[in-house]
From TrEMBL:
Belongs to the FIS1 family. The keyword Cell inner membrane does not apply. It comes from Oryza barthii. The chain crosses the membrane at residues 139-163. The C-terminus is necessary for mitochondrial or peroxisomal targeting, while the N-terminus is necessary for mitochondrial or peroxisomal fission. It is found in: Mitochondrion outer membrane; Peroxisome membrane. Pfam families: Fis1_TPR_C (PF14853), Fis1_TPR_N (PF14852). This is Mitochondrial fission 1 protein. GO terms for biological process: autophagy of mitochondrion; mitochondrial fission; peroxisome fission. InterPro entries: Fis1 (IPR016543), Fis1_cytosol (IPR033745), Fis1_TPR_C (IPR028061), Fis1_TPR_N (IPR028058), TPR-like_helical_dom_sf (IPR011990). It is a single-pass membrane protein. GO terms for cellular component: mitochondrial outer membrane; peroxisomal membrane.
């Protein structure tokens, strides 16, 4: 019984946490990628290392890392040498924007990725996550608005009841 209750609260909590299936990256991995970039022997190795660093940054739990990754990817997008490389960078940008909560931009980038390769599973999976998150946030927003209107109605009803109660007592005197 306790395990069922725990699972219930975990599933309800996941609605508010917005858990997803994307991997996370920690500071140690980012530091390792930064060292790779610094130690790259040639331009090709440096570009590959920068892609790994960008991947690590947009998968970080730290907003400043994610934003740094987004900036790096945007700056390098014009230097893409193939549709595959463009697709990868657009996907990582979509991950970064998803992590920052900019679901509209993430969705736009994913649509562009899927124009390049319509059956790309990673992009399709992230697209579902974006849609789920947008839908979930919309439901939470509607619940908050409904609750706020309910609270306003309750307070207004209380004020009206108190006012009518005091006016009827003053008429009796």
């Amino acid at each position: 019984m306790d395990s069922h209750v725990g699972k219930f609260f975990d599933s309800v909590g996941s609605i508010f946490r917005g858990s997803d299936t994307l991997p996370w990256c920690d500071r140690d991995i980012i530091a390792g990628c930064e060292n790779e970039v610094a130690e790259a022997a040639n331009e090709e190795q440096k570009n590959e290392s920068l892609m790994r660093l960008s991947w690590a940054l947009v998968h970080s739990r730290q907003p400043e890392d994610v934003n740094r990754g987004i900036g790096m990817l945007q700056a390098s997008l014009d230097r893409s040498t193939s549709p595959l490389q463009t697709r990868e960078k657009l996907y990582l940008l979509a991950v970064g924007h998803y992590r920052t909560g900019d679901y509209t931009r993430s969705r736009q980038l994913l649509e562009t990725c899927l124009e390049i390769q319509p059956d790309w599973r990673q992009a399709l999976t992230l697209q579902r996550l974006v849609e789920d998150k947008t839908r979930r946030d919309g439901m939470i927003g509607m619940a908050i608005v409904t609750g706020a209107f309910g609270l306003v109605g309750l307070v207004a009803g209380g004020i009206i009841a108190a006012a009518s109660s005091s006016s009827s007592s003053s008429r009796k005197k």
